[in-house]
Amino acid sequence: MEVEKDFIQREIQRLTLVLAKLVGKALGLNTDDFEQEFQNIESELKSEFDLTLVGISEMKAIALKNKIEGLDGQHLEKLVELITAVVVNSEKGFGQKLARNGILIIDFLDASSKTFSLRRMELKSILQKML
Fold first, then answer.
1. Are 36 and 44 in contact (CB under 8 A)?
2. 3-state secondary structure of 112
3. What three-state secondary structure class fits 57?
């Protein structure tokens, strides 16, 4: 039982590092290579989490909630950071749809978490300005 718990904890940490790396990539996006880097981020997200930012942007609220319910809170926090970084650097139409669902993820985190997060509030504020 202890070995299983250790494995799960290591996997959560590994996936958190993957998301942190993707956030770093997204923060470095510029208009010259946006499309290529965005595709790299999408493929890595798809392989690790079976999610894509395009998919998230197109999901209805209920479908999104059902999809994220199984994810760890740390992963959702990093996913929101990734969404925010991409929204800031993307086209208005796509960015607005993604921002709207990023806010839904933050609301889900706020409702399911027992702690208040200034970082989440900061990210929510940024996403709201992009709408």
1. no
2. helix
3. helix
